[in-house]
Amino acid sequence: MYSWTRFYFRLPIFLRLFLTVIVFMVFFGALIHFIEPQHFPTIFDGIWWAFVTGSTVGYGDYVPLSNAGRIIGILLILAGGGLVTFYMATLSAGTIKHEKDLSTGKVAFKGKGHIILVGWNERTRQLIEIMQQHNDPEDIVLIDRTMRELPYNQYPVHFIRGDVSDDETLHKANISYAKEILITADPSMREEQADQVVILAIVAMKGLNPELKIIAEILTEKHSVNARRAGATTVIRSNDFMSALFYHELHRNDPVKPFELLLEIMTEQQFHELDPPDTLVGKQFKEALIHYASDKETLVGIIRDEQLKLNLYSDAIIEKSDRLVVLTPLSQ
């Protein structure tokens, strides 16, 4: 008996109230059936009457006629009506609280195969919009420690508020079943401090999921090696990338704007790393260009000895150990 009581009180309040309402209505339904069997031929008829009366709907298809039956009806209205009303009020309040908890990042994510984004900033906001435009099927979990609220109905993400280096936060994001993680540097911190936070996050994540693919944004050159040592699969040095774009823009005299062109390429196409097919091993780079151009793809360069090589000579030979970098339209 004690174990059932303990089990009952450990249930969520919605379920406890629901079970209480069911037991309450079944009891009154069975009672009215035994008191007035001529007017309530079956127990189900009595239960139907109890639900209709207790919820104050009152269809009038079943009515107790005896004094004892009417007394039961009075007790049902007094007790059952209040119980049903309390259940509905609790259900409504719980729904509102759950929505509030979702917006404030308190609800754990239960899905699998999702993508985790760390840090709420303009970069992640635009990335979410791009993924939404291209109908990416993966669920997105956003972890951020500074944002107090993210309206869940405005962005298609599951928000978790907390420190990304904290195990509790990572467990809430269900990191053990995540597909990959993108860690962005915190723009409110000094660059070196932001890199240290990213590296600490990588260590924490790898400790919980050693096989996890982690893409990390690093701002300073000296910490890129440390990020790889910590376990980052890919390190993006955004400062170096943007500095190169700034330099070319400063020395460009024609009206073409490379920033806009680059953004258009990144939003409409995606990069792939591929092993060279056997038919291209030992062939010249220009032959590979023609091979991928026939499929409306663009061969950009190769990765050899962990270094990206662009603008190769047309007679450069493709080796079996190379990785081909190919630009593919997202619609394919």
From TrEMBL:
Secretion signal, residue range per the UniProt entry: none
Annotated SUPFAM superfamilies: NAD(P)-binding Rossmann-fold domains, Voltage-gated potassium channels
Highest taxon, organism lineage: Bacteria
InterPro entries: K_chnl_dom (IPR013099), NAD(P)-bd_dom_sf (IPR036291), RCK_N (IPR003148), Trk_Ktr_HKT_K-transport (IPR050721)
A Pfam family reported for this protein in Swiss-Prot or TrEMBL: Ion_trans_2
Topology with respect to the bilayer: Multi-pass membrane protein
Principal localisation: membrane
Localization annotation: Cell membrane
Annotated TM spans: 13-35, 71-90
UniProt protein name: Potassium channel family protein
Organism per entry: Thalassobacillus hwangdonensis
